[in-house]
Predict the structure.
Amino acid sequence: QVQLVESGGGLVQAGGSLRLSCAASGSIFSINVMGWYRQVPGKERELVATISSGGSIMYGDSVKGRFTISRDNAKNTVFLQMNSLKPEDTAVYYCTFMGLRIDWGQGTQVTVSS
């Protein structure tokens, strides 16, 4: 099992920026994908961005050009730089680790005020 510790959520005004971090520990399989999904009440969890251990990146359509995902493989940590934030980015953001199984963090709230 992989444990994920997220940090960096909070309240920001529209147009502002936030940076999320997620550190993984435990049974780390070297070939993996780390990333972020988000969810608002009443809706399904949606892809924000993922990055593989080899550097392949995917973004959700709604965040392309505004969010940047990166990772530090030596520290098993993934980062999400969120710029030009919009009120519709308000959600709980969940870190995920996809190795031999899929693990999720506890979630961190991001609130963007208009």
Notes: The mean pLDDT is 96. The first strand starts at residue 2 and ends at 7.
